[in-house]
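Review this:
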Amino acid sequence: MYGVKRVLGINGGYRGFYARNTITLTPKSVNDIHKRGGTVLGTSRGGHDTKKIVDSIQDRGINQVYIIGGDGTQKGASAIFEEVRRRGLKVSVVGIPKTIDNDIPVIDKSFGFDTAVEEAQRAINAAHVEAESVENGIGVVKLMGRNSGFIAMYATLASRDVDCCLIPESPFYLEGTGGLYEYIEKRLKENGHMVIVIAEGAGQELVSESVQSMSKQDASGNKLFQDVGLWISQKIRDHFAAQKTLPITLKYIDPTYMIRAIPSNASDNVYCTLLAQSAVHGAMAGYTGYTSGLVNGRQTYIPFYRITERQNHVVITDRMWARLLSSTNQPSFLDSKGDNEEKKEEEAALNQLPDGHCSKDTSLANKEINSIYPTTC
C-alpha cells in the first residue's frame, strides 16, 4: 500500500545484523508462516554489539527497522534507537511485543500469551486425569514464567481443575501451619487427588542450596534458574514418604517448550495482524522509538523508555489473584507466617523500648498510627 518493494528479514536475531545473511521477504514467502510455530528468521540470546548493528543498518541503507520480541528484545530495540538518534540517521525503529510470558509493561497483553494459556490447558488436563486415576494422586505441572506468573495464573483460572497455583510474585513455604504440605494433605483427604501448577520462577529462593548456583547467568544476563518442578515434586514425595500416613502417587508434567513451539491461535493471529499494521502505519507517519500495542483496548504507540523501565508482574493484591485464590481455595501462604513475623518484630521492638515509654499500644491495628504519633506514658 505504501509502495515498499524491498523487505529484508534478519536471520538469527540481533547478531544476524552483522554475523549472518539476510532473507528477502515477499508476500509469497511469508504467506503461510502464521500456520507455523517458532520463527522462520531464527533467534539468538544476548551477546550483540549495538554499534555493529547500527553500522549494518547504515551500510545497507535500511530506513525502517521492526524488532519483534519480549522485554529483553525491546530493551535491545531501545538501545538501537538511541544509537540511531545519536548518529542522526533517518531510520525508524519500531518494536512489536511478542512473548508468551506477558511481562511487557503498559500494554494489555503481548502476542503469544493467549496461545500459551490455551495450550497449557492440555498439560493441566493431562495432570488432572492422571491424578484422578489413582488414590491420593498429585499432578504437578510446570509452566513458563521466569519473573511473571501470568501463564500459570490464567491457565489456572481457565482450567478450574487446579488446586494450587504457585507463581514468582507470591512467595510460599513448605512446612508448618499454613504451608504447602499441610494444604496438600488437607486437599487429598477432602478430594482424593489434586493438581499443582507452578511457574518456572516460583520458589527459586527455596530451591537454591548455594549462593553460587544463583549467581550463574545466561548470555542475556538472566539468572539461570533451577528446575523448580522437579525439585518440588521430589520434596513432596520425600515429605509424604517420611510421614508414612498418606501414600501418594505423583506425576510431573513439563510442557514448557511444547507450549512455546505451537502455531498461534485465532485470537493471537488477529492481534498480531493489528500490531503489525499499526507498527507500519506509525513508521510511515514518521514516528520512531516506540512499541505498538493495545492499551485499554485501543491501538497505541508507546515510547521505548516506558516499555523498558520495568517488567510486568502479577499484582497479588489485585482482584485477578483474589479470584484465583477463591477458585482454588489455596492458602495465600502469607497470613500465618506473616503474623508470626509481625509478632517477632513487635517483641523485638518492645525489648528495645527505653525506660519511660509506653508499650501498651502496640497492636497491629495501631502500628501505623503509633509510627506517626509516638506515644509516651
Q: What stands out?
A: Residues 113-262+315-328 form a domain with the Rossmann fold fold (CATH 3.40.50.460).
